[in-house]
Every structure is written in C-alpha cells, then in structure tokens.
From TrEMBL:
Lineage: Bacteria, Pseudomonadati, Pseudomonadota, Alphaproteobacteria, Hyphomicrobiales
Stored PANTHER family: CONSERVED EXPRESSED OXIDOREDUCTASE (EUROFUNG) (PTHR43708), OXIDOREDUCTASE (PTHR43708:SF8)
Pfam assignment, any one: GFO_IDH_MocA
Gene3D superfamilies referenced in this protein's UniProt entry, alphabetically: Dihydrodipicolinate Reductase, domain 2, NAD(P)-binding Rossmann-like Domain
Protein name (database record): Gfo/Idh/MocA family oxidoreductase
Length: 332
C-alpha cells in the first residue's frame, strides 16, 4: 500500500508540488531503502525506529501505512511529535482504541484521518448525487454483494474477522456516505466456508438498520471463486420512486416510476449525473488532497476520525453480532 500512496504523491501535480517526503520507516530497513530507490527518494532519512526518524526530520504529516495491529502505536507516536496523521484503514483494532486515538488527536490539536479511498471514486459520487437530487424518491434500501477470491498470502490470511475488518469497511463506509444516514443496529452471520484459505471469517452476511427507516444489507465472501464482483461490490439501491443498479465499475441502470395504474407501474430510465467535483474521484490522491486542504484552511477532512469511527463501529457491531448471535446496537 505504501507504493500506492507514493504513486499518488508522484503522479498528482498538486501533491507533487506541495508534499515533500523527508523520511521512510520500516521494521526492515532494506524494505525502506528499496522503496526509496524505486521512487527516486534519494537523501530521505531512512530508519527502523519511528520516533527517532520523526525527531530527526520534524515533519508536518505522518503517513501511517502499517498493518492494523501497529496502528495505535504509530498514530500515537505521530501525534506526540506534532504531526497530522493520515492512516490506512481500519482506523483501529477496537472501538476503545479508536476512541483513544480521537482523544489523542484532539489533545494534540492535530488531524487524524483515514484513507477510505473507495468513497473517492466516480461511481460512489454519482450515486450520492442521484439520491440527493431526489430522483429515486425517499431512500428505502441499499443492498450490496461482494464476492471475490484473492489469494493475498501474508497477514490477511492469518487475521481474525478478515472480511469484516479488512475489506467490508470500504462498502460499509460507502453505504454511509451514499445514503447520508447513520447506522443504528446490525445482525450479522460470519463464517469461514469450506475450502477457505483464510484462518477466520472469510464470509459474512449482515443486515443494518440505518436512520430514517433505511435498510442496508451486505453479502460478502473473500473466498468465492468463479464469478467475481467488482472490488466496490455490486449495488441495488431502492427508493419510493425507483431503483438504481451499479456493478461497482462503469455500468449503471436507473429507472423511476412514471405510471399510476396497472399491476406493475410503468417505468422509464433516468441518467446518473456526473460527480459534482471531478477532483473528488481519484482515490488515494483525492483523500490526500482533502487531508492537506483541511490542514491548510482549517476544518476536518471528509474521512476524519470523528466521522470514520462510525464506519468502524459498523464493523465491530457486525463482529459482535456474529460472535454473540444477536442483534447489536451500534454506538461509535
């Protein structure tokens, strides 16, 4: 993932002109050195001890691109050294840990935001705009299918709750953003299907109740071979006046009711509007740009921890529900 962040810095003019990388830290020094060489970062500080490199370089920003188990210590170190911190997801390994990081960020007077890069894609922005325009009437439901079979190797295949904790948060966060609603409760069944190459929790089915009587359902598996969906999931979003289907890539189908009579009312297709702001559709680059803009002009970026903790609460609510076989109230 560090390479994805560095590519965004290198290939986005506004970032390339305004962000200077002054240090790289990795537990394996050779990994950091190889990264510096690949991205032509000659002269940057390289080390294996984060506080030492932070003291040496005195940066404004820390980009936290570590495995989830290291999140808390890395973010805390960055805030303690006066850095704004932009983290990979998930925000934390528990809600208590996430709440602690919110307190640390507020005490330091610094921003801590999360790279929810998948809300910064054109499809998500287009659907949100369609809903905000009222084309579907009152929103009633969001329904997502996520079925892929990636063979990562490494830490993911050893994680507990791997689908919910490492991947489903993207879809959960997108559902929150698209709907503009708050998650209230969840009932979830999690399992590890026969043939799974993951240690735990490669599949899950969840039903969320959102505010204003909106329902969000999620069906997902990370060990589903043969008929993959998009990484963004396949969506069906319903309202009182129509439905939109999105394959998670470039295909949209939106229809609204125009008839008043008949067993099935007549419908007609409607166009899906383009994003209101094209600059918000570039994934990692857009997240980083939003973060830097917030630092410069004030306010909080869209994926600030104060907002992202709600998506994390959906994840841990689903995990708790699956473990205890009960409906869980979501509290961020």
């Amino acid at each position: 993932m560090a390479k994805g962040w560095l590519r965004a810095l290198r290939e986005t003019p506004s970032l390339r002109d305004n962000v200077i990388v002054v240090g790289l830290v990795d537990l394996d020094r050779q990994t950091a050195e190889a990264l510096a060489s690949e991205f032509d970062l000659s002269g940057v500080a390289i080390g294996t001890d984060l506080p030492a490199v932070l003291s040496q370089t005195n940066p404004d920003i820390l980009f936290d691109v570590v495995v989830p188990a290291a999140r808390r210590s890395v973010v805390a170190a960055g805030l303690a050294h006066g850095c704004h911190v932009l983290s990979e997801k998930p925000m934390a390994m528990s809600l208590d840990e996430a709440r602690e990081l919110r307190v640390l960020a507020d005490r330091a007077g610094k921003l801590h935001a999360i790279v929810q890069n998948r809300r910064y894609i054109a499809g998500v922005r287009r659907i949100r705009r369609l809903i905000e325009d009222g084309a579907l009437g009152r929103l009633t439901g969001l329904h997502c299918d996520f079925f892929l079979g990636p063979h990562f190797g490494g830490f993911r295949e050893q994680m507990a709750n791997v689908l919910l904790l490492d991947m489903a948060i993207h879809t959960f966060d997108a559902a929150r953003f698209i709907s503009g609603k708050d998650p209230l409760t969840v009932y979830c069944h999690e399992h590890n299907p026969p043939g799974s190459w993951y240690r735990h929790g490669a599949a899950a089915n969840a039903i969320f109740e959102f505010s204003d009587d909106v329902v969000f359902t999620y069906r997902g598996s990370w060990c589903a071979e043969g008929a993959p969906t998009s990484w963004e999931s396949a969506w069906r979003i319903t309202g009182t006046q129509g439905t939109i289907l999105w394959d998670g890539a470039e295909k949209f189908e939106a229809n609204v009711v125009i008839g008043r009579d008949g067993f099935f009312r007549s419908i007609e297709p409607v166009g899906v509007p383009v994003p209101e702001n094209e600059s918000e559709t570039h994934g990692h680059a857009s997240v980083i740009e939003s973060f830097i803009t917030a630092i410069r002009v004030g306010g909080r970026p869209e994926t600030d921890g104060s907002d992202n903790i709600k998506s994390l609460a959906m994840v841990f609510g689903a995990i708790d529900s699956a473990r205890d076989h009960r409906r869980v109230t979501i509290a961020a």
